[in-house]
Prior knowledge:
This protein is an alpha/beta fold. Helix content is 48%, strand content 15%.
Amino acid sequence: xxxxxxxxxxxxxxxxxxxxxxxxxxxxxxxxxxxxxxxxxxxxxxxxxxxxxxxxxxxxxxxxxxxxxxxxxxxxxxxxxxxxxxxxxxxxxxxxxxxxxxxxxxxxxxxxxxxxxxxxxxxxxxxxxxxxxxxxxxxxxxxxxxxxxxxxxxxxxxxxxxxxxxxxxxxxxxxxxxxxxxxxxxxxxxxxxxxxxxxxxxxxxxxxxxxxxxx
Length: 215
């Protein structure tokens, strides 16, 4: 299967992508992983992306599209893939369509993970990270530490990242609504969208997604 996963920040895309890709036996292709891999390997696209990032500029769509196309051409993606974070806007969606058409393949579905905005803010703004080990993540509501402000694992101080404040989250949501959300209508016109209410336990959301994909 060839799937695009879309949803606002805090919708659980990364978690669901990992579970779905495993269940379906296809690679999970995330924009973040693409950038890290290309930059660490020093590929021409990675070097170009890094030059924009160092200058504090946005990486052009052409670079992101190039990375995604290179990844989709790899052998493990011949039988399908799950795209997470790409396409991020309508221009990227159009480029993906052109690539798929040229390759003689089609998308099977676009999974739209829907989460109420206040829940997104609650999920992200409630996160607390350990200063000693950033892998230790807690949440003031869903996974509270035994002692407020102290990591259960190593005793490190827990803090809120600057990009996890409510003000920053709402700005990120505004960008999502403006830039990314329009791709849902773009793909809905192609009858590809399956909307999943991404509330509840992780496995419950995965089960909803798998049921939608069977349609």
